[in-house]
Amino acid sequence: MTRFTFAFFALFAVQGFCFSAFAGSYAPSHPDPVEEPWRWRAFPETRGIGVRCIAEGKDGAIWVGADTGVRRYSEGEWRVYTQKDGPGAGPIHRIRVAPDSAVYVTTQEGVWRFHRWEWTRQQEGVPASDPFQGQGAPRLQTRDGTVWIGGEGCLTALRGGTRKVYSLTHVPLFGPLLDLIEAQDGSLYLASREEGLFRLDLTEARYKTWENLHAACSSSDGPLWFLTQDSAVVRQEAAGWTRYGVGEGMMDSPAQVVEGPDGVCVCGSHRGVAATGRWRGKRWEIQRHPGLARSLCCACLAPDGSVWFGSEGAGKGEPGGLLRFNREWRHFTDEEVGGIGDVAALASTPDGRVWAGGSRGLHVFDPLRLAGARSGQASTSSGQGGRAWRPVAQIEELTGPVTALHVTPDGDLWVGTRSAGALRFDGRTWAIHNTRTGLPSNGVSCIATVDSSLSVVLDHNRGILRQDGQGWVRTMDADLSAETEGLFQDRQGAVWLNGVSREGQWKAIRYQPDRDPPETTLTLKPDRVAPSGNAAWEWIGKDPHHSTPQEELQYSHRLNGGEWSPFASQRGYLFLSIPQGTHTFEVRARDRDFNVDPTPAVHRFVVEPSLWSTSWWIWMGAFLILGMVVLVKQIIQRDRQLSEFVSVVSHDMKTPLTAILVYIDNLLDGIGGGTLTEKQARTLRRARDNGERLTRMINDLLDLSRMEAGKLRLHRTSFPLTESVREVVEGLQPVAGEKGIDLTLTEEADVYVRADRDRIEQVLTNLMGNALKFTPQGGRVQVEVRQIDRTARVGVSDTGPGIHPNQQEAIFQRFHQVKKEDMGIGLGLAISKKLVELHRGRVWVQSQVGKGSKFFFTLPVEKRGKG
């Protein structure tokens, strides 16, 4: 015997009393399975089709004959047989299964045989009378000897000479039953013409209910322990059931049974006083704790081996609080704990902290703080308990009533509350789960771990949910989880659901989770996908034991071995823009017991390559590109040759033209001798003007040729741009005056640029000359110079005819003319644009037809030092 056990029993002997009466046997009672709603399952697919008869095939498939034809149900799937592949849509009179597994169906048109997935007509000319008209109630004798008789909204069972009639309004099933069968798994199938097909699970392999009991704990030595509604403790083991009441040494009001470090403990009340008890293998030893509280409601085992008990709260003359046993008893009053009120739940985390949830929130006990208080490291004005216990007040949701505490195998603490949802503490941070994050209700009555995943029982029959790491999933049948207040999983893997019926009767339901995973099948699986990469997939899952309805199966999929998608109920998915090539798609099903198909449905498919990625297209494209390269190269070479030709011709033309102009000037100046008549002088002046215009054209051609060849040299100097603009404006004033055009200049302070002054003045002359040329008599031309940030901008606006939008880009191209009758060859704007771009500027136009034009160009402003 350990020192702990010896000390515990010694205290019982000194402070308490020992009951050593012999225990009594116990005979548990079970409700009638027919009256348990969660054992019934309706098939909504059959409602309204006029079900007449049913049968089970050798393969376990259920055959349904109805007013609308015959249907087959197998592994969660319904198959409707039509006129093309079966007896048709007329009424089905009977369905029978032969020893060779063939299914025979009788209709008004004859007898049909279904064998090896083929229908054949066996007989014609069967009388058209309906055997179901006026027939008696269906009868069935099951393998256990029970005779079942269907009636109008009821079911009668004859067992061992006794007769019991069940009302089926709770199913709900109100119409007459037309057929009954017993399936291979022991369940009953019932056919109703109005309500359709129903299944009644009468087996106890997965479900079994005990009346007037609540499962409490599963001890390490094997037995299961229960609390009874009449205030006793029951022990179940292989040898049978044993009851411990007051007459057998138990306290008169046990509240909880837990396993301590050296055996099973019980807490509760005895004769109106808080009490604890210890199982000594053959008897119970009970100890009362006067001056504590009326009752102890909950208990837990801490990592250091101590056992903690929580009281129902302080009362008149009773300090309430918590009780701890660790070689000696230690009482922490409600005041020392921090005003916890009624203690509803206790739990201890691996770090040694003990957590208590009560009507006034969550409180925590830190053993290190208690050790510090004992060593005198801080004031003890509020007592050692006050130093060690403190409320968890930093989270508002934890200041209200706490209903459940649970520590997961990973060491996380989960807290259930009455109205704030569930909270998880991982040792560092709190996470809140409520209706805003996926819980259907904020009321939590119990939290437990089932098969390594967390389960939460919600208040007000909202069901049981499990967490899969990505969200909350409703699990177990809705009727099964109704009225459930608590659950735990025993050491054999069974899940126990403790509930209270509306009439106040206790019940404990043992649920054996299904261990067989579902199977997954792809129903739509493309082999080849168009180059767009858009592909749709569909699938279905099958639960081998029908424990999970088809609509509650969930699925997860992935592509090319990537991450699995979160489980969801969708039975299809559309992929978009899958890249070309070979891919692998996988999908797997999961049932509500969290069994996952270990062999997912797998399908390999190919996304066809795009037209331009095929080999012949690539070769054709390569030849086209090669041809284009050769063509462009030839064009560039011819363009270069043309530019060189223009340059040579222009240069050769300029030399004699210059000489001609010199001769004309000499004649006009009278150097050649003789006096010219007015007509001769006018003719020479016209020849000189045309020669000068031709010279300008040749100069433009030479400039353009040099720029395209990259041979134009710019002589950059620093100068005030405003001064150059002013000089050009003044030089063109006579031209403006001749046409009666108002030529004005708006300028800011001197804006300095570093550029080729002659070339910039060439641009200015070109833009202003065009404006004067296209502005009608009496019009207006405005020139402005501005500095915008680090850029100088020159604008020339006129009141001319304007430029159509579709020509505003083309006017800067070589040889483009707005009007074919315009004088010139269309190089001025092209040269201006290239000159400005060589100075890292840009040129653009803004114009509306009939409202004139505005030409702008910019140049970088020169950075000039201060002073």
Automatic annotation (TrEMBL):
Enzyme class: transferase
One Pfam short name: HATPase_c
Ranges where the Histidine kinase domain occurs: 648-863
Keyword terms: ATP-binding, Cell membrane, Kinase, Membrane, Nucleotide-binding, Phosphoprotein, Signal, Transferase, Transmembrane, Transmembrane helix, Two-component regulatory system
Gene Ontology, cellular component aspect: plasma membrane
TM annotation in the entry: 616-636
EC numbers for this chain: 2.7.13.3
Lineage: Bacteria, Candidatus Handelsmaniibacteriota
UniProt-annotated location(s): Cell membrane
Gene3D superfamilies in alphabetical order: 1.10.287.130, Histidine kinase-like ATPase, C-terminal domain (3.30.565.10), Immunoglobulins (2.60.40.10), YVTN repeat-like/Quinoprotein amine dehydrogenase (2.130.10.10)
Gene Ontology MF term list: ATP binding; phosphorelay sensor kinase activity
Alphabetized InterPro entries for the sequence: HATPase_C_sf (IPR036890), HATPase_dom (IPR003594), His_kinase_dom (IPR005467), HisK_dim/P_dom (IPR003661), HisK_dim/P_sf (IPR036097), Ig-like_fold (IPR013783), Sensor_HK_Regulatory (IPR050736), Sig_transdc_His_kin-like_C (IPR004358)
UniProt catalytic activity: ATP + protein L-histidine = ADP + protein N-phospho-L-histidine
Signal peptide span: 1-23
Species name: Handelsmanbacteria sp. (strain RIFCSPLOWO2_12_FULL_64_10)
SUPFAM superfamilies: ATPase domain of HSP90 chaperone/DNA topoisomerase II/histidine kinase (SSF55874), Calcium-dependent phosphotriesterase (SSF63829), Homodimeric domain of signal transducing histidine kinase (SSF47384)
Record's protein name: histidine kinase
Keyword Kinase belongs to the record: yes
